[in-house]
Write a structure and sequence with these properties.
This protein has 460 residues and is an alpha/beta fold. The protein contains 15 helices and 13 strands. The chain starts with 10 loop residues before the first strand and ends in a 7-residue tail after the last helix. About 2% of the residues have low confidence. Bound molecules: guanosine-5'-diphosphate.
Length: 460
């Protein structure tokens, strides 16, 4: 593991989101050897309050030279090792808003602290062994969670639900490696290797790896939300629908067919689940180059969407255009939106019988959106698209690493099948062990750490 070059310094940052004139409390956090000293320099605690760990003091924050009071605040003291970073940590709970917290932060910097880098508190918690890398990533996931389920999974990760099985897998691989290496080094002194047993143990590891890998898709869904693509022929009302739905004007609505030339995105929350809606250009054959790009993107968006909303105009009903689009997307979970029901009744529209869910809407009159949302939630449930019963979910980095572990283990298994010498077994086994260590941070490079912590906010 790389050394932390900056561990000696005391870092400071505003730990709460600061919105001008909003938020009643703002927290400035300090971590490092000088934290308490700086707090004593700028915080005045009247009466007989004890400067002890895990206590809250009440008092004033004053400029040490001028004595001018900047804020009335609470001070929370958490001395090493009983703190998030395992260093001395103090937090000033100031009045919220830009000015008090920024002034307090400035004072801390003047007294010798350094402004923290994004994620540096968590990085220190990781370097000091308080959390592993999966838990550090879960901190960022919890802060950025966009749905209750995503928060739940992040919390599980923070509590070690992923770290524990990954560490166990690594230990199991290390045990197997030790047995194999012992046979290489002390061949004459030990009974021969029980190949069947090693094979069985590898198989158990492999099964668990695959089990954890299977959580990746749904984890992705929870983190970035459900991707929904609105598709349909030009002028059926796709953009109007998205507009009505998101109550925004992001999609250009006009009467000319083909004006939504690209993919427009809107982020909504439907029944607690983040939903990213992609309004795609009408999928149809076209000679116009710009439009062609839009059409290609639409096809791609529809292919990548978790759910497709195929929209048609109730007046025209199911035409060749719908049949053509349907052919492209029919393997995806799909809801048929029958729009413009103010102009023609939806029950006259006939469509392929295998389409199970329909939602009649009037996009310009905001009608049918409730029903559409219900249909979406039903589809999510029936297609098992949510992670309702999932207690852990890996992210893309962890998925990539675990896929490498799976491949390495397959190689070991092949090597055994081919009766190759024991030296060969150890090569891929070591690779699997190293990669498992990369997931938890036991064996990780500086560039991986940089990538992970760069997505944190300052103060975390
Ligand atoms: P898109 O090409 O599929 O995105 O279609 P638009 O959203 O641009 O809509 C095309 C035209 O149909 C616009 O003039 C809309 O005002 C109109 N429109 C959309 N939805 C409805 C609806 O439910 N009822 C009626 N009467 N007109 C609609």
């Amino acid at each position: 593991m790389p050394d932390s070059p900056t561990q000696g310094e005391t870092i400071a940052a505003i730990a709460t989101a600061v919105v001008p004139e909003q938020g009643s409390i703002g927290i400035v956090r300090l971590s490092g050897a000088q934290a308490l000293e700086i707090a004593q320099e700028i915080f005045y605690a009247p009466g007989k309050q004890q400067w002890q760990s895990h206590r809250i003091l009440y008092g004033g924050i004053c400029h040490p030279q001028t004595g001018k009071q900047i804020d009335e605040a609470l001070l929370l003291i958490m001395l090493a090792p009983r703190s998030f970073t395992r260093e001395d940590v103090v937090e000033f709970h100031c009045h919220g808003g830009m000015i008090p917290v920024q002034q307090v932060l400035q004072l801390c910097l003047e007294c010798g602290a350094r402004l923290a880098q994004p994620g540096e508190f968590t990085l220190r918690a990781f370097f000091n062994g308080r959390i592993d890398l999966t838990q550090a990533e879960s901190v960022a996931d919890l802060v950025g969670a966009r749905s209750p389920q995503a928060a739940q999974i992040a919390l599980a990760g923070l509590q070690g639900k992923l770290a524990t099985p990954i560490r166990q897998l690594r230990h199991n691989c290390l045990d197997i490696l030790a047995e194999v290496e012992a046979r290489i080094d002390f061949e004459d002194d030990l009974p021969p290797l029980n190949e069947t047993e090693i094979r069985d143990r590898l198989q158990l590891v492999q099964t668990e790896v695959k089990h954890i890998l299977a959580t990746a898709d749904r984890g992705q869904l929870l983190r970035s939300g459900l991707k929904v693509a609105i598709v349909g022929a030009p002028n059926v009302g796709k953009s109007s629908l998205l507009n009505a739905w998101s109550r925004s004007d992001r999609a250009i609505v006009t009467d000319l067919p083909g004006t939504t030339r690209d993919v427009v995105e809107s982020n909504l929350i439907v029944g607690g689940i983040p939903v990213q809606v992609l309004d795609t250009a009408g999928i149809r054959a076209t000679e116009d180059t710009v439009e062609k790009i839009g059409v290609a993107r639409s096809q791609k968006a529809a292919r990548e969407a978790d759910l497709v909303l195929l929209t048609l105009d109730a007046r025209q009903g199911w035409t060749d255009a719908e049949a053509e689009i349907y052919a492209l997307v029919k393997h995806r979970p799909l809801i048929l939106i029958i729009n413009k029901i103010d102009l023609a009744p939806p029950d006259r529209v006939t469509y392929p019988p295998e389409i199970e869910r329909t939602a009649p809407t009037c996009a310009i009159g905001d009608r049918g959106l409730d029903r559409l949302e219900t249909a979406i939630l039903e589809t999510i449930k029936s297609e098992n698209l949510t992670a309702a019963n999932l207690d852990l979910a890996i992210n893309q980095r962890q998925e990539a690493a675990l896929t490498r572990v799976k491949t390495a283990l397959e190689c070991v298994q092949n090597t055994i099948e081919q009766n190759l010498p024991l030296d060969f077994w150890t090569i891929d086994l070591r690779d699997a062990i190293r990669t498992l260590g990369e997931i938890t941070g036991e064996d990780v490079t500086e560039s991986v750490l940089e990538r992970i912590f760069s997505r944190f906010c300052i103060g975390k």
